[in-house]
Design brief:
The protein has 193 residues and is an alpha+beta fold. Helix content is 36%, strand content 21%. The longest helix has 17 residues.
């Protein structure tokens, strides 16, 4: 265990970024700028990828050594997101998501137009109330349960039910598959231009 700890410290575990929440007056202007950027540039059906300040976010980011821990689908009209959390697929306030984020990335999916975005959002909203797919996180997906990345994939009619650990879609996948419209970078107290 000591060896693992020294290895993590020595190699700079990316997943540890964001473990200690940065909150308070020094960060309020920065978070307001993030919200404005997402609302100004975002469209229905777009993907939002974050590193969250939650215990689940810490677990996912640390165990996968990633800068990101969560993906969801934007409802730009309602300023909400469709996301899967441990209690299931829910619609949550966009501001709340950003308030609890160490980093926020807005991604335009390939083929996005206002029309395709609206259709993707409608597909995501149909999943509201479905249960969380714990098995999907280890490559054993359930056809009627959804983890966060599965919701974002399903919205764009991308396959989500492939068996095998190598088929688990990590939130970072979305940052490489679409066009990044906004990347806040890690929360540092300096508002983005």
């Amino acid at each position: 265990m000591l060896t693992l700890g020294l290895t993590i410290l020595g190699t700079g575990c990316v997943g540890l970024q964001g473990v200690v929440p940065k909150r308070g007056p020094a960060f309020e202007a920065e978070v307001r700028a993030w919200k404005k950027a997402v609302k100004d540039r975002g469209g229905n059906g777009m993907w939002i990828v974050i590193r969250s300040y939650t215990n689940a976010g810490d677990l996912f980011a640390i165990t996968t050594n990633s800068r990101f821990s969560h993906a969801c689908v934007l409802d730009a009209n309602g300023s909400t997101v469709i996301e899967s959390v441990f209690k299931g697929v829910v619609e949550s306030p966009l501001d709340q998501l950003i308030d609890h984020a160490h980093r926020v990335v807005l991604v335009e999916p390939p083929g996005w137009t206002p029309e395709t975005g609206n259709a993707a959002l409608a597909r995501a909203k149909l999943l509201a109330g479905k249960k969380f797919d714990f098995g999907g996180l280890i490559g054993l997906p359930h056809t009627q349960r959804w983890y966060c990345s599965e919701v974002a994939l399903h919205a764009w009619e991308l396959r989500t039910d492939r068996i095998g650990l190598w088929n688990v879609t990590h939130p970072a996948w979305f940052t490489r598959r679409g066009r990044i419209l906004f990347d806040s970078g890690p929360r540092d107290g300096v508002p983005n231009p």
